[in-house]
Specification:
Blueprint: E1 5-9, H1 16-27, E2 30-33, H2 34-42, H3 46-53, H4 55-69, E3 76-79, H5 90-97, E4 98-103, H6 107-117, H7 129-147, E5 152-154, H8 160-169, E6 172-176, H9 187-193, E7 198-201, H10 219-232, E8 238-243, H11 245-256, E9 261-267, H12 275-283, H13 287-293, H14 295-305, H15 310-328, H16 332-336, E10 342-347, H17 355-364, E11 368-373, H18 385-397
Parallel strand pairs: 1-3, 1-4, 2-3, 4-5, 6-7, 6-8, 8-9, 9-10, 10-11
Helix pairs in contact: 1-8, 2-4, 3-4, 6-7, 9-18, 10-11, 12-15, 13-14
This protein binds shikimate-3-phosphate.
């Protein structure tokens, strides 16, 4: 159930304030209009702030007011200014503090609306209809890369309220990636699941471009990443789909913080950790061998984790696996403490994870069952996402 701030973003004239007010009324939530908060703070209009103190001053103030509003304790609807997501670190702040919706009506509607009120808007003042059209096209184009980072894009703004109401009823499903992976790999699956769940993804420390930090990679470190994410997002409880190592992290989280985790679905998670299995896995993490034998994979890893160094990433992953083999892995007793409903799945063509080790864990977890996925190999890119999304829905929605 969604209980976070909802940020409405989009170009001037996209209807953020109008729809924000109506949405707040429909949900019986508080409403904040960032421009109005800025005007109240500064005791003058936005137009006056631009004229007397300049845009740079306005942008700093805008960033401060955004952060102040976000501190409200009850979830609120917040209509942003058209430029808010595009300055400072505002967009990543927005993403960390709530759910964001990009209102994206067609350009001709923006032109129609804005030509009637361009005089009040400092960025539009003095422009005739042609100049206005050109300005909107160019500025929108510049800003799209920020706007498109929103969690949801709504072009039919009339459908905002029913869509949000539907979203409110959905359970959150967090998709966790594997040891060498990143959240981006789970995008195709996310897309297939968004109709049924409030789907979230995250990058573990050091993955998908996220900084390495000072600590070595460990299951506990990644578990804390997840806990931090669900705290920051104000999520009471999440269901989790964990691919490979992501499944291991999900079960560790369920053991340590049972009240924060609903159902768990794992795919291709390795459970049998010993010195031998870890050594075998680590042999496959040699950057020199990867570069010479599978250069396309080397390139993919480089791009996936940039600006972090992919070779260092492999070394840190190897050390995590060796630790697991040397006693850091969860014991059968640990797994037996997991009370959630769990589905453990593995593909019949998985050459890294055996059916036996998966079945054995499913027997130890009191509410777990095992399913073998015929013909499915290990790499997530080779898994039929349609098939797996159907299985997830079947298990999570029952
Ligand atoms: C701006 C949009 C305005 C206001 C300021 C700057 C922009 O908000 O913050 O005039 O840069 O697009 P609205 O989008 O609510 O009009």
């Amino acid at each position: 159930m969604l209980k976070r701030n909802i940020y409405l973003l989009g170009f001037m004239g996209s209807g953020k304030s109008y729809w924000g007010r109506l949405l707040a009324k429909a949900l019986d939530w508080s409403f904040f209009d960032l421009d109005a908060v800025i005007e109240e703070t500064e005791k003058c209009t936005i137009k006056e702030i631009f004229a007397s103190k300049g845009e740079a001053y306005f942008r700093t103030l805008e960033g401060k007011c955004l952060r102040n509003i976000s501190k409200t304790t009850t979830p609120s609807i917040i209509a942003l200014g058209g430029g808010t997501p595009c300055f400072g670190e505002n967009m990543s702040w927005i993403q960390r503090h709530g759910i964001s919706i990009f209102l994206n009506p067609p350009i001709h509607i923006l032109v129609e609306r804005l030509k009637k009120e361009s005089e009040h808007r400092p960025l539009l003042a003095g422009k005739d209809e042609d100049a206005l059209q050109q300005f909107i096209e160019e500025k929108l184009n510049d800003r799209l890369c920020f706007y498109k980072q929103a969690n949801y894009i709504i072009s039919e703004t009339n459908s905002l309220i029913p869509k949000i109401k539907k979203l409110m009823e959905k359970n959150t499903l967090l998709l966790l990636h594997g040891a060498l992976g990143s959240q981006k790999q789970l995008e195709p699956l996310k897309e297939l699941l968004t109709l049924d769940f409030d789907v979230r993804t995250l990058n573990f420390t050091g993955h998908g471009g996220k900084a390495f930090g000072d600590l070595p990679f460990s299951i506990d470190l990644f578990t804390k990443d997840v806990l931090h994410y669900i705290d920051e997002q104000n999520l009471e409880q999440v269901n989790i789909f964990g691919y490979s190592m992501g499944g291991y992290v999900a079960l560790n989280l369920a053991k340590l913080y049972p009240e924060r985790v609903g159902k768990i679905f794992t795919l291709a998670t390795k459970f049998a950790w010993s010195v031998e299995t870890a050594t075998r896995e680590v042999k496959m993490l040699d950057p020199v061998a990867i570069e010479s034998k599978v250069p396309a994979f080397a390139k993919a890893l480089e791009m996936r984790h940039a600006p972090q160094d992919w070779k260092n990433h492999l070394a840190k992953t190897a050390s995590l696996m060796l630790d697991l083999g040397n006693g850091a892995a969860l014991s059968a007793e640990d797994f037996s403490k997991v009370q959630q409903k769990v589905v453990i799945t593995v593909g019949s063509k998985d050459r890294m994870v055996s059916q036996e080790e998966s079945e054995a864990i499913a027997k130890v977890i009191p509410n777990a069952h095992f399913e073998l996925l015929e013909g499915v190999p290990h790499p997530i890119e080779k898994v039929d996402v349609q098939m797996i999304s159907e299985k997830i829905k079947e298990e999570m929605l029952s």
